[in-house]
Amino acid sequence: MRYVLSFFLIISSLAVNAQSIVLKYVAFNVPDVRVAAQWYHNTLGFTIVNEGKDTYVSDAGRNFRIRFFSDPTQKNNYNDISFNACHMAIETDDIHKWEQRVLQAGGKYNTDSRLNAIGDKVIDMRDPNGLMLQLISRVRPYYSRTPGAMRFEHLALNMSNNKEAALWYVEFMGLTIPWSKDPADSIRPVSNYRIPYVGDPGRNMAMEFLTTGDVRDYTKLGFEVSYVAFEVKNAAAFIKNMVRGGAKQIGEPHKSNGKIYIRVRCPWGNMLQVEQRVAW
Q1: Contact, 155 vs 205, CB < 8 A?
Q2: In terms of DSSP H, where are the helices of 138-234?
Q3: What sign does the dihedral 153-89-198-78 (CA atoms) show?
Q4: Cα-flanking dihedrals φ and ψ of residue 257, to 5°?
Q5: Could you tell me if 157 and 175 are in contact, meaning their C-beta atoms sit under 8 angstroms apart?
Q6: Is the dihedral of CA 183, 187, 191, 196 positive or negative?
Q7: Which among 192, 173, 149 has a CA at the least distance from the CA of 270?
Q8: Which helix (H) or strand (E) holds 227?
Q9: Residue-by-residue pLDDT tens, the chain, 280 positions
């Protein structure tokens, strides 16, 4: 049975990896889309991108985006959401400059600044809507920087078993293990990583899987409030493989703005949206 399972995982992984996958954006419901986008533009220097009726902000390297939408009937303030449930990490070579800009623009501290175990400076903050922003200045940046600018680095989500989750996202979604947080573990398997990361093959953006306290604040929000979006070449085949691995499709596929959209929850309950560009 063990060998049959191993063969299945190999075949599944090959099928997924045959596709290119891009970690595109995280979406949040906010009180006012224009105000939220303008805040990120004015405060963090992000670019506002409008595609049809959708509004995003992107870093200078176009590595990742935040999509803002507004539904006043749903939750749109995040001050009560734990940093251990979800946060967006932004890396920079001038952390105190951006720290002051966030404060001057109505943001606030979530926790005091600190150095992590490998010497990176970290400041946990919140924007005016309570969204969780982690400013980081790496001793050795994981991705190339744009000097003086902010770069999306990773999106952190809480998992009940972060190492098992990392392996699942690799096997059934074709993501990669870009690094370990502990340099000494950089050549060891993911099972030895203290906090595993997974990233898209193009090295645009990563996800950090936390397991602190098994905090489920984020998964309880639902698609009406937030989700994480990926772009693939064949959404139907991609979702089929995810479901084989234990994910659950939510609703039926729909088309809009030249794309197919399919929603799914991973085995840990996180809200994921798989998108495919299509010709009309």
Answers
A1: yes
A2: 162-173
A3: negative
A4: 50, 35
A5: no
A6: positive
A7: 173
A8: strand 226-231
A9: 333 334 344 444 444 554 589 999 999 999 999 999 999 999 999 999 999 999 999 999 999 999 999 999 999 999 999 999 999 999 999 999 999 999 999 999 999 999 988 899 999 999 999 999 999 999 989 888 888 899 999 999 999 899 899 999 999 999 998 765 554 544 555 455 556 899 999 989 999 999 888 788 999 999 999 999 999 999 999 999 999 999 999 999 999 989 999 999 999 999 999 999 996 4
How far is CA 171 from its chain centroid?
A: 18
Work out the number of other CB atoms within 10 angstroms of the CB of residue 20.
12
Distance, CA of 209 to CA of 206 (rounded, Å): 10
Distance of CA 97 to the CA centre of its chain: 24
* Domains of the chain, CATH where assigned: 2-277 (3.10.180.10)
Phi then psi dihedrals of residue 272, to 5 deg: -120, 140
Identity at 37, one-letter amino acid code: A
Measured torsion, CA atoms of residues 208, 133, 230, 179, in degrees rounded to the nearest 10: -30
35 Cβ partners below 8 Å, 6+ apart? none
Chain length of the chain: 280
DSSP tag of 36: H
Query: Across 138-225, where does the E strand assignment appear?
Result: 151-158, 197-199, 206-210
Note the pTM of the prediction, 2 decimals: 0.89
Q: Choose among 129, 128, 133: nearest CA to 91.
A: 133
